[in-house]
């Protein structure tokens, strides 16, 4: 990946800042995409101190992208997995009573947001549009030029270190998600992560699954392509074409009939019988 010299220097500066960090980083440089500019643009944006919003269907590699960025920058990452139950404490931390030398005291345990800010690490907010809209505005001040917040649990002002960065991910249109507030979305650079296909998908399967039979891998690549056609036609839902589900199915196909593997890994996850039948019909044309 060719980078402008200035951006490369910024990355090296971050790596030097975290050279003391002895624990293993979250991920490896394993993100693969048909469009090489996806990773390149994410690296440039993060180097410039921009917040990144990864936007794409489930199983398209958004988390892998975040882990790859963590590895590229040599920078540890703290994660928040959002849900309808995500509240201020899940983001910022919580108070607890501790005992020291027989005396009780109240101690604040910092959450992922505070830890990432204070240490200058990366913060990954997964499925940010699953959180209740009233919870997220607390993040506004850390996502703009201020890079600080007043902790409502302690009244302390927390200022982020220079290397602090934010990566968020969303799956749009899924059950339980809500549209992001425009003020929040406007604080991000948006990068689309589509499903990988063709030779790049073959590379992903080879790298991440147990399946080694090249002929079988080719047929699973074709299965993915055919499923995407059905998704675009509205016949099956987007999650049926999930690359994550495809990798699971490839693993299963090492030890069982591939059509049975497709049933366990893909079709049985769907709700409608017609959707299940559509997936199995495609599989039967490829694996019989």
Automatic annotation (TrEMBL):
Protein's organism: Siminovitchia acidinfaciens
Residue ranges that the Swiss-Prot or TrEMBL entry lists as coiled coil: none
Gene3D superfamilies in the cross-refs: P-loop containing nucleotide triphosphate hydrolases
PANTHER family, sorted: MAGNESIUM-CHELATASE SUBUNIT CHLD (PTHR42759:SF1), MOXR FAMILY PROTEIN (PTHR42759)
Highest rank taxon of the organism: Bacteria
Name under which the protein is recorded: MoxR family ATPase
Domain AAA+ ATPase: 48-194
Example GO molecular function: ATP binding
Family of the protein in this entry: Belongs to the CbbQ/NirQ/NorQ/GpvN family.
Pfam families per UniProt: AAA_5 (PF07728)
């Amino acid at each position: 990946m060719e980078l402008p010299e200035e951006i490369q220097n910024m990355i090296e500066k971050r790596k030097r800042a975290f050279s003391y960090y002895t624990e293993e980083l979250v991920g490896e440089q394993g993100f693969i995409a048909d469009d090489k500019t996806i990773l390149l643009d994410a690296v440039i944006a993060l180097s410039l101190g921009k917040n990144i919003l990864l936007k794409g269907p489930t199983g398209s590699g958004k988390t892998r992208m975040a882990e790859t960025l963590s590895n590229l920058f040599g920078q540890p990452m703290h994660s928040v997995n959002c849900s309808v139950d995500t509240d201020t404490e899940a983001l910022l931390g919580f108070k607890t009573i501790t005992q020291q030398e027989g005396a009780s005291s109240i101690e604040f345990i910092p959450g992922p947001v505070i830890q990432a800010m204070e240490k200058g690490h990366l913060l990954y907010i997964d499925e940010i549009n699953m959180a209740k809209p009233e919870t997220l505005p607390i993040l506004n001040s850390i996502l703009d030029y201020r890079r600080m917040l007043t902790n409502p649990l302690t009244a302390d002002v927390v200022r982020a270190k220079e290397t602090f960065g934010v990566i968020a991910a969303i799956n749009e249109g899924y059950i339980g998600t809500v549209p992001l507030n425009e003020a929040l979305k406007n604080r991000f650079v948006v990068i689309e992560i589509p499903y990988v296909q063709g030779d790049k998908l073959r590379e992903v399967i080879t790298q991440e699954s147990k399946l080694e039979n090249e002929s079988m891998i080719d047929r699973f690549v074709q299965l993915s392509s055919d499923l995407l056609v059905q998704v675009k036609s509205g016949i099956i839902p987007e999650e049926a074409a999930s690359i994550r589900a495809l990798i699971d199915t490839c693993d299963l196909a090492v030890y069982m009939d591939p059509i049975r593997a497709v049933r366990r890994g893909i079709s049985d996850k769907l709700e409608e019988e017609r959707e299940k039948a559509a997936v199995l019909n495609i599989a039967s044309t490829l694996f019989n």
